[in-house]
Write a structure and sequence with these properties.
The protein is an alpha/beta fold. It is 54% helix and 8% strand. Strands 7-6-5-8-9-10 form a six-stranded parallel β-sheet, sandwiched between helices. It has a four-stranded parallel β-sheet with strand order 3-2-1-4, with helices on one face. β8, α25 (493-501) and β9 form a beta-alpha-beta unit.
Length: 559
């Protein structure tokens, strides 16, 4: 123990001795309150300052001390990811001393973390009024503006901070991230690298630089910085999750899936943990056991991760499956020995008794996909369409035209990356102009505009089957896709459906694809029936579309 720590402990001891006989001793209360605050016990410090306020409500030192204690409570709660508790503590601090610009900036930062961007902006602007050069306030104003998709204004705020203090590392991080999101990769990298130079112990800076490098397909560098972020801050869930994606892109599957488990600790992860009481399966023998598998994430993810269900079926376990309610008939058809029920809250009454273990669908990969050799090599149909519906669709499509039936989808509905992944039909001339093909829209949502564009630009008819609505009936959509001879699509749920059905699929990928597509190559580990065509540079669909057109020409000539 250092001398200062010893003195602090002695001050606490003496104060407690005095207060044992004189509970209202102001001097002892103040010494003990400050000692608790400095020793990292803000809750006790808060109680002691509140006692001081009750004794001497007008003393400015007591008021300031109580506000400091509430701020310390907020910091501790924020570090433990208890954002609402931290928010309440900061609001208490500001009730005591409303004119604390940094406290208000901290409050704005917490609101940003909760997605309350409008309120965060109000708090940040109020802090700036109190202190026009409060760097934390200007910086968090930028974060709030970015959350409101006002990127140009956000960039201006971060630049304003750096004009006042060029060595303010946090704003280098935030400016770099904003510039990267705006497509200015080179400037973004310079600021993110500068942030790491200024503060190499900053885990957030290391994480953001790692993400930016991954966005440039520089995965070795990305991995290095993301590992550093997790070393500096072992509980940094987002950094672990980002590391998992960098590892999976490089086919480092074993460690990648281990790191992928951190997804559940990420506040913005788009799925919720299912609160079943059964033990989590960690690879124990399943012969004669009952395993509950529950789905997670979006429609395309659920289809892709179902790639592991044949492994469960072959394990000797009785499989119980909770899935999106639209998938229930498909999974029941595909796994007739399984008990399948819809995911709902509260849990479906169809959950049987006697379950031994539970696991989420994606976590099955941690057991069954730890090496590239663990993925299937044959395009087996691990999901099955309704044969009668397939036959009805094929009959309709045979009446639409001669030649092979090609299902196409050109738009992604992803709310973040959809525009980047979408390839407008105006650019599909080399594909749509091929003779001997009947093109059928597999596009979910409104397809009329795209079909009209194909007709206007290329004088090609793309047929829409009005009897099929993928958003209304998953079973009908699976049947429609199963009726195709070939599927050509951008990265969306369509290719997961066709891949799961074993239909030959050609996927057009944007320059920086999701982790599931790997860093390079024309294969996709999840779907052996799939060939991948990648952009050579961001936003340019010419190369992959020309490659698909050549492949289609070769396919038709050999038929």
């Amino acid at each position: 123990m250092t001398d200062s720590a010893e003195r602090l402990a002695e001050a606490e001891r003496l104060s407690e001795v005095i207060l044992a006989t004189d509970p209202s001793n102001v001097a002892a209360l103040k010494v003990l309150a400050l000692a608790k605050l400095n020793s990292g016990d803000p809750s006790s410090a808060t109680e002691l300052f509140e006692r001081l306020m009750a004794l001497e409500p007008q003393d400015p030192d007591h008021r300031s001390g109580l506000a400091d204690a509430f701020e310390a409570v907020a910091r501790e709660a924020a570090d433990n990811r208890q954002r609402v508790t931290a928010l309440d503590a900061l609001e208490c601090a500001l009730e005591i001393e409303p004119d604390r610009p940094r406290t208000r900036a901290h409050l704005a930062f917490l609101r940003v973390g909760l997605g309350d961007y409008e309120e965060a902006l109000e708090d940040a602007e109020r802090a700036i009024l109190l202190d026009p050069e409060c760097l934390e306030a200007i910086d968090v104003k930028g974060l709030a503006l970015r959350g409101l998709d006002r990127t140009v204004e956000a960039i201006f705020c971060f630049e304003q901070v750096l004009e006042i203090n060029p060595d303010f590392a946090v704003s280098h991080v935030n400016l770099g991230s904003a510039l990267f999101g705006a497509g200015d990769s080179d400037r973004a990298m310079s600021h993110l690298r500068r942030a790491v130079e200024l503060d190499p112990e900053n885990a957030e800076a290391q994480n953001n630089l790692g993400n930016a490098l991954a966005g440039r397909l520089e995965f070795e560098g990305a991995e290095q910085h993301l590992r550093q972020a997790t070393t500096l801050k072992p509980s940094f869930a987002e950094a672990h999750f980002n590391l998992s994606m960098a590892l999976l892109m490089q086919e480092k599957f074993a460690e990648g899936w281990d790191e992928y488990e951190w997804r559940w600790r990420c506040p913005e992860f788009p799925s919720t943990w299912r609160e079943f009481s059964y033990p989590f399966w960690r690879g124990e023998p399943l012969e004669g056991k009952t395993l509950l598998v529950w789905s997670e994430q979006g429609v395309g993810d659920e289809i892709m991760f179902a790639n592991t269900l044949p492994d469960v079926a072959a394990s000797g376990a009785r499989m119980v499956l909770e899935c999106n309610e639209r998938f229930v008939p498909i999974f029941r058809r595909s796994y007739p020995k399984a008990i399948v029920f819809p995911r709902q809250t509260p849990t479906s009454p169809e959950v049987p008794a006697g379950i031994d273990y539970q696991i989420s669908m994606a976590s099955l990969c941690r057991q069954y996909r730890r090496d590239a050799a663990d993925f299937p090599t044959e395009p087996g149909q691990y999901l099955k369409a309704d044969p009668k519906r397939v036959a009805a669709c094929r009959t309709r499509y045979d009446r639409m035209g001669e030649g092979i039936k090609i299902g196409i989808s050109w738009r992604s509905g992803n709310p973040v990356m959809g525009a980047e992944r979408s390839a407008p039909l105006s650019e599909w001339g080399g594909i749509l102009s091929q003779p001997g093909c009947t093109f059928i829209s597999l596009q979910y949502g409104d397809a009329d505009e795209g079909v009209a564009e194909a007709k206007r630009t290329h004088d090609v008819s793309v047929h829409i089957d009005d009897a099929i609505d993928p958003l209304a009936s998953m079973d009908e959509w699976f049947a429609q896709v199963a009726a195709m001879d070939l599927v050509i699509s951008v990265d969306n749920s369509t290719v997961q459906v066709s891949g799961a059905l074993g239909i030959p699929t050609w996927t057009l990928l944007s320059y920086v694809p999701e982790w599931r597509w790997l860093a390079a190559g024309s294969h996709n580990p999840w779907h052996p029936c799939m060939t991948v065509f990648r952009q050579k540079q961001s936003g340019d669909w010419q190369f992959p579309i020309e490659a698909v057109a050549e492949a289609l020409k070769a396919k038709l000539s050999s038929a």
